[in-house]
Amino acid sequence: MGIHSMIVGVTDSDLDSEKQEFRTAGVDYCFEKPLTPERINLLLNDLNN
Fold first, then answer.
1. pLDDT over 70 for what percent of the chain?
2. Out of the domains of life, which is the source (predicted)?
């Protein structure tokens, strides 16, 4: 269909294995909580490109 949606995973864990599970599932980004303004700006900038 030509649609691309950004998928963002957010976790409260810093385990690399959990972040890898997110990536395997197809997320574009995986962040550890809390979401900072810098991370949100990164996402918004990526959406604008």
1. 100
2. Eukaryota
Neighbours of 39 (CB within 10 A): 15
Query: Residue 13's pLDDT is what?
Result: 85
> What is the token pair recorded at 37?
């303004």
The closest alpha carbon to 46, from 30, 33, 28, belongs to 28
Residue pair 31/13 in contact (Cβ under 8 Å)? The answer is no
What are the residue boundaries of the structural domains of the chain, listed by start? 8-48
Burial 9-38 (b: 16+ CB within 10 A, else e): beeeeeeeeebeebeeeebeebbeeeeeee
